[in-house]
Amino acid sequence: MEKLCITVFLLLNIVALSVAPLASAQTLTPPNVSLPGGWRLESQKPYPEAPSEYDEAGAGMLQYVNPQNYDEVRIYYERAPSRTFSSSELKREAEHLFDRDLTDEIQESGTMQLAGTTAGFAKAYDAQEDAYLWDIVFIKDNYYLNVLAYHAASSQSQNEVMSILNSISSGGLFSGTMLYIIIGLVIAIVVIIIVTVVALQKRKKTASQFSPQNYTPPPPPTP
To answer: Could you report the per-residue pLDDT of 12-50, keeping only the tens digit for each?
Structure first.
């Protein structure tokens, strides 16, 4: 029984050490995107090292550029808040972030379909650079995404930027509730191991109780 207690204690410590890093680890991986030819990942900040809007932990950031014409897409991603956003709220959100983060004056705002969901946007034209500035906000797969885009005033540049944004998909292993599924599996495996160890100990004890004893027959009777 003492050995069994030690075994259970060790297993519980193993699961605690396994689950603790997962629980404390950053659980939002970067969203996936598909880049057009000529584009590249220029820089990034892992979650949660970038400033966020709603996520108390912080946000992550991905910066993609086309070095040939200096087009740029900067994606800030964080855990989506529990509340939902209406189309009008997404529009106002994009306008607010544009006014806060960019110096140009908004010339157009509204909503559009992007990456399979509704996005709010605010947009301005920079006549000096002959380029467009965008601030786009949307919720996708448990991500709150704030996108800053800058591109030349050509249909090709705009199409490439929109293709990047439309390709956004969830980030991977620890996104959303996947972390809790992994923790549950780890706990379940450890419980199965503990139950197996207990059953084997009981079987061993039962077998020892019924094992044959050494028996010395009595001497034969004297004549």
So the answer is: 455 444 544 444 445 799 999 999 999 999 999 999 999
Provide the angle, in degrees to the nearest 10, between the axes of the packed helices 178-209 and 2-24. 180
- Is residue 179 pLDDT above 50, yes or no? no
Closest CA to 79 of 165, 164, 179: 179
Tell me which amino acid residue 48 is: P
Q: Where are the alpha helices (DSSP H) in 32-150?
A: 87-101
pTM for this predicted structure: 0.70
Q: Are 90 and 111 in contact (CB under 8 A)?
A: yes
Residue the block writes with tokens 């947009």: 123
- For residues 175 and 166, give the distance between their C-alpha atoms in angstroms, rounded to a whole number: 19
| DSSP structure class, residue 58 | -
How long, in residues, is the chain?
Answer: 223
160's CB contacts (< 8 A; 6+ apart) are 36, 39, 66, 71, 151
Identify the CA nearest to 71 among candidates 162, 1, 143, 141.
162
What ranges make up the beta strands (E) of 82-198? Answer: 108-114, 117-126, 131-140, 143-152
Please enumerate in sequence order all residues whose Cβ is within 8 A of that of 153, keeping only pairs 6 or more positions apart, or say none. Answer: 125, 130, 131, 132
Q: Dihedral angle at the C-alpha atoms of 184, 189, 193, 196, nearest 10 degrees?
A: 100
